[in-house]
Amino acid sequence: MTKKNPQGEVWIFAEQHEGKLNDVALELCGKARELADALGVKVGAVLPGYNVSGLAQTLVAHGVDRVYLVDDPNLRNFTSSPYAHVMDTLIEKYAPQIVLYGATPTGRDFGPRVASATRSGLTADCTELQIGDVVDSKTQTEYKNLLYQIRPAFGGNIVATIVNPEQWPQMATVREGVFSKNEPDASRTGEIVEEKVEFEPGMLCVEVLERFVEAKTVDLKGARIVVTGGAGVGSKENFQLIRELADALGGAVGASRAAVNCGYIGAEHLVGQTGVTVRPALYVAVGVSGAIQHIAGMQDSAKIIAINSDPDAPIFSIAHYGIVGDLNVIVPWFIKAIHDRPVE
Ligand SMILES: Cc1cc2nc3c(=O)[nH]c(=O)nc-3n(C[C@H](O)[C@H](O)[C@H](O)COP(=O)(O)OP(=O)(O)OC[C@H]3O[C@@H](n4cnc5c(N)ncnc54)[C@H](O)[C@@H]3O)c2cc1C
What we know:
Rossmann fold; 7-stranded parallel beta sheet; 8 helices
């Protein structure tokens, strides 16, 4: 366990692959900046890789004060042991109070290894992070300025605020899209701290021979309009209605977990806590009840239209416009109205 350091920095893991920073790393910079400002401390970014020094200024422009650069040929590709060793070593040396990771395959692989090595906690898939105080109800001990690690829990029946008062650093993973990126400020200046970390031969026993990245087929995150179908759509064939409405609006097709589980559409369309987080200008939820895990991934949409036959469906509590009725009637009307609208 590393020492508890209330003056410690707020760190992010600057995940990059082949010299390109992940979106989530840049999204975390903005959140780390906000948390660090609340605590009155600096933001640090740990940047392991090979020939990646050019990325440091991008991190600074997004709000980082100090980049810990570990540039080493052994870190050319991500492999668990050396990357985790870099993080463990730097945590031990600098004692940050908070460390944030993207909930990517990489972050999910090595975040828990770092938590285990440093004997600290790690809350996965947080949907919000804040700074706040806590009083232990048993001992009446008051803890100031802890990281509130907030996420749905117990199958979504509660939104839990998890704190880690003793075993620091406080660590969390966050999925891509949960926080939005800050506008970069190219005039910001920061410090680059070059670190050298020694590896034991056993840590380097895995060699990456080739990387193959499958191209994304659906861009939900970048879409201005998302039309999402839920279990209420009723069948794979009927999901064509959702596609037609999305086409008419010029939007992307999303899906709830229940629609994916029923086999109506592929998991790459999933919106929510375990899918993609979206913030489009318009989100149309069709036959979606509005479970907390779904709402976590779309509640920040600028305008939400919900179509549902149940007037008490929870989705209506966050919708700006609600239409109560059978989607099989409403959606064709909706599509016709779009096609019939006069061209300006
Ligand atoms: C750990 C965990 C993670 C999860 N992650 C996600 C996630 O990322 N994303 C996600 O979506 N879910 C997630 N879920 C599942 C979530 O709890 C809900 O089960 C799911 O969102 C429900 O999907 P739904 O709204 O399509 O289905 P339902 O809850 O079954 O709702 C269907 C809705 O359709 C309406 N309806 C039925 N027929 C019609 C009709 N003809 N016309 C109009 N309306 C109609 C009904 O009134 C109902 O409101 C997760 C659950 C867990 C436990």
